[in-house]
Write a structure and sequence with these properties.
- This is Integrase catalytic subunit.
- One of its GO terms (molecular function) is nucleic acid binding.
- By secondary structure, this protein is an alpha+beta fold.
- The chain is built from eight helices and nine strands.
- The chain has a domain of 76 residues.
- A hairpin with a 5-residue loop joins strand 6 and strand 7.
- The N terminus is likely disordered.
Amino acid sequence: MINVNSSPSSSSVDGSQETAFSQCLDQENNVIPSELSDEAQLKLEVIQALLEPCDRATYGQRLREAAEKLGKSKRTIQRLVKKWEEEGLEAIAPTQRADKGNFRIEEELQKFIIKTYENGNKGSRRVTRKQVYLRTKAKAEELGINLPSHMTVYRILQPFIEKQQKKKSIRSPGWRGSQLSVKTRAGQDLSVEYSNHVWQCDHTRADILLVDKYGELLGRPWLTTVIDTYSRCIMCLTLRELDISFLRRRN
């Protein structure tokens, strides 16, 4: 049986992101974990690269590069990723001495970091951690306060990035570990094992304007696509004036 799952309009914004960011900020109480070792930082970079959505070939290449960087087998790297998903930072940085403690940065600057990342990743926009750091640097100079290191900015963002990814689960597919998976609107996780196993539908307004033969503005047309989740092949593509989403509401 072929599972065909509808995805929301690509132009929509997850309204719960801001709440999730705020809640996470309150829970952390503005305290940032102390510095990670160079080895732990390298493991973190490797894990983040493997967890980014990609096709199967790209994942395989990233896995080989990760094994070379850490001097481990590919299987060991996969176990490390799995442990990270279950334990978080504890997987790469075992419990540290209590006397190391935590340190704080200016609350206003920390809120700026989170807000910059949040606003920079709405809709089709994307902002990287490095871009957030550069903007934070300019903000710190403007406020006349000490600039945190780039690793501090990255650690501030990390828990929010993880919570955002888990909350959205990004219905566009991604390789997590050795498995390609996708989450439906109803919250069901589907394992995608072969072509034509799962299709995804997207229905949104196109970023173009139509006019009739007299030059009168007709408005923006609706673009509907059906994509095979496994191969990413476009199975169907239509462009029309009619919003067909009412059919789903009627049914």
